[in-house]
Each structure stands twice: as C-alpha cells, then as structure tokens.
Amino acid sequence: MKQVNLLLMSAAMTLASCGGTKNAGEQDASTLIRRSDIKIEGRRMTPEALWAMGRIGSVAVSPDEKQIAYTVSYYSVPQNKSNSEVFVMDADGSANTQITQSTWKEAQPVWFKDGKKLAFLSSESGSNQVWEMNPNGTERKQLTQYDGDIEGFSFSPDGKKLLFIAQVKTVKSTADKHPDLPKATGIIVNDLMYKHWDEWVTTAPHPFVADFDGNGISNVTDILEGEPYESPMKPWGGIEQLAWSPASDKVAYTCRKKTGLAYAISTNSDIYIYDLATKKTINITEENKGYDTNPQYSPDGKYIAWQSMERDGYEADLNRLFIMNLETGEKRFVSKAFESNVDAFLWNKDSQSIFFIGVWHGETHIYRLSLTDGDKLTRLTDGVYDYASLALCGDKLIAKRHSMSMADEIYAVNTTSRNGADFSDVRQLTFENKHIYDQLDMGKVEPRWMTTTDGKQMLTWVIYPPRFDPNKKYPTLLFCEGGPQSPVSQFWSYRWNFQIMAANDYIIVAPNRRGLPGFGVEWNEAISGDYGG
C-alpha cells in the first residue's frame, strides 16, 4: 500500500507541474498548441507526456469527399484549461493543416452543402455560437446571435434550416420561489432528479429549428416548447440524438418524457418525429419500454434506424439496432447475428446496408450489415484495437482508432475489398502524437484466456512494464472495470492509463469478468441482481 501511495503522490506532483505549451506563463494571450518541445527522459510514459498529447475530437468529411476536417484539443495543467483547434487534410491524409489558432475553442466542424465553407462552434463572441470560415481558416463570420450557448447543431439537407441544441430553464431557483430572498443560493429539493453527479439540474437541453438564409437565422422554434423534458438526454447525449429527414421536412429526436421520480428510475426513452409543416409530433417506439436513442434516416428516406434496449430500468441491456419502414410501419431487429452491443452506426449511401461498431472479445471493430441479404454480417476490421465514430468517404470509412498503447488517430478503412479474413486495407491518416510515441517504450499488451472456477473461459488483458524481465518479480495492479457492465476493451484513457501504470514497473491484470459485454448476453447479465456474487 505504501508503494502505491508513493506512486500516486509522485504522479500528482509531476502532473501539477507540467505545462501546456513551451511558455506556459504566456498562454493567457495565446492559444494552447501542440507540445512539439516535449522531451521525455528514460523513454517511459510520464504525466507530462500524457497531458501533452493532442486529443482528436469530431471528424467531418466534405461533400465532395476530397477533404476531412477534424478537431484536436490541447491541455494546460497550470492554467487548468483546454483549447480545441480545427485541422483540414486531404482525404488521403496529405496536406494536413491547422486552420485555426486562437484563444477561443473551435469545435464540431460541419461542411456546408456546397463544400465551400466550414461551419463550427466558437465562444469568440462570449457565448457558444455558430460561425463559418473558409477551409483554410480565413474569412471567419458569426452566423447566429442566439441568446445563450449553442451546444450542437446540424444543417438541413437542403441547407435552408438549422437544427441546434440549447438549454432551457425548467426548474425554479430558490430566489424564484422566494422573491424576498433574491441572493439565496441554497437548493430546495423535494423530488428527483435533482442532480447529475456534480451538476444541479436546473435546465434541460431542447432542440430548436430555425430558418437559415446563409447569413443568419430567423423564425426560431423550440420543438419542445413548454415541456420540461430533455432532448438530447443528459448526461451524454448530443447532436447524434437528433436527425433530419432527407427531405428537410421532419426532425427525429430522442426523448424520455418523464419528470421527477419516474424520470430517475426509468430508462424508457423514445424516438419522436416532429413535422415542421404541421408542428405535430408522433412517437414511433411507444410499444418498446426500454432505451430507444440515436435515430438516423436512410439516404433514400424510406427507413429510419435507431439503437434500442428492450427492458425499462436496465441501463446495460443489449443495445440492438432496429430499422422501421416509414411507408408500412414495419419494424425489424436487424443486428441479431451480433450478440453484443451496437455502439454506433451509419447508413451506407445505397440505403441497403448499415455500418456499425461493436465490442466482441475485448476489441471494438467495424461491421457491415446487409439489409437485403438476410441481415448478413461482415466484419471489416481486425486487430488489438478499438474503433470509434464513422463517416463515409467514397468507398472508405473514416474512423478513429485507439488501443491500450495509442490514443485516437484517424484511419481510412476500405469497405469493398474484403476477401474472407483479409483485413489489411486500413490506412492511418493522422499522426497527431507521433513526436511523443517516438520517445516512448510502451509496455507489451497481451491477451490471456483463463479458466474460471466454474469452467468458463475469461479474457484477461495483461500489460507488462517496458523492458520487462521475466526473471524478476513485479508488483501487480488488478484492474476491475467499474460501471459495471462496460467492457475492458482496447480503450485509451487519460484517467486510467495502463501505460503510465506499467511505466512505473507494475504489471496490470485487467479481466473481462462477469457483467461485461462482448461475450454474449448471458455473460453480461450474470451479475444482475447479484453484483457481489
């Protein structure tokens, strides 16, 4: 215990002293930028190296599929702040250029329909608003003047409307309830749900639709006007929980229309479709009592797909992929062949197949689901990695990939030249942290299948110290995944980083114990109602 405490103290002390740029004290007047000056002694991961890494965020492919925009966040420990910047590269990874460098956070780049401009969120005007700029970063212009922060946005397919997310006050404060106490800061609680971790629930995110003329917005409409519900849903939901129809006449949104105790104990959310012309809303998943979320229309407008859990109140239920024929109303569970969670998905351009990512045996890979061939499943990637986020670019998928030995980078995955077990056609496009990895020796990551006390096989990841000597004894850290019921896959974490543990001469043992997805429903549900057992 003493050795572990000393390790944590050392990490905390060095973390507190590491800087975000070469001249950390001068950053108040400049942006946080890539730490190209970082020097690592001993070729081992340190807190300074970990926090000097750029963190790749959202990715957007241009309409002509010739360019890719993406964001990178940089951190400064002395300032206790981060900053995100926008980069643009050609679709093959060449001509990679940072197009913003400011003290304002630029986030969520989105290409305009004609591909000539990029829209993005920026706090330059004092609140988060939608701006535009050329793909080289010039001619910045503010497009929205909304009274409040915009948290996410999406243009309609015809480019004439803007869908955006903003907070709406839904709970009266103590001062509101007692005007004679205007400075009161205490919170009066008489019902759930009053808090998400460290955030008091006083507002709810609502989806807004506005007309867009290329220069600004008008006729702003709150789709949930007067309703106390959330869309997208807290605490993690974003613009992916909302979707435009291809005809730009409807918006599908995710919502759990409950309040108080019912909201706190239920996971029964639904997919609603809002008609812009009639302003009427229909619920298309009312018969399902579990967690329905993340709708996406097919490109031809004939179908809508979404992720769906079956049982109310069960946060770790199997996350299935459903589609609905919008003409007939027929619904179909299309991911039956995959006995694990569908974590994210994307329609193919032909509306005949869907790409998705999901975890199986401790790795998260990309799959193609053919809707015209008996929901046939084809795996497109392989290796000791986790893939995340998907975007189409010609005959390739643009995705982020990480592992226990590398943070997110952007890759291109060929979707057409698969032949049996040939997974070789994957190309790395970004090398954001290569200058750091080149100075590090990473600990070996090894999968081991172990026999449990009841004769089952359990996948366990073992991470060794750099320069591991099999003739020596090492202290060992046992990593038992929290949640529970989330996988020990090939994740990269800036909080629970296995390589920084291994760099301090620990062996890490990380089992995929009962109650983790990626090994079938029975394995995942084994702890339900019996966590300690």
Question: Can you offer a commentary on this structure?
Answer:
- This protein has 533 residues and is mainly beta.
- Helices cover 9% and strands 36% of the residues.
- The protein has seven helices and 34 strands.
- The strands form nine sheets. A four-stranded antiparallel sheet has the order 1-2-3-4, with no helix packed on it. A four-stranded antiparallel sheet has the order 5-6-7-8, with no helix packed on it. It has a four-stranded antiparallel sheet with strand order 9-10-13-14, with no helix packed on it.
- The longest helix is centred in the first third of the chain and has 16 residues, at 2-17.
- It is globular and about 75 Å long.
- Mean pLDDT is 91; it is low at 1-30.
Q: How is this structure best summarized?
A:
Helix content is 9%, strand content 36%. With 533 residues, it is mostly beta strands.
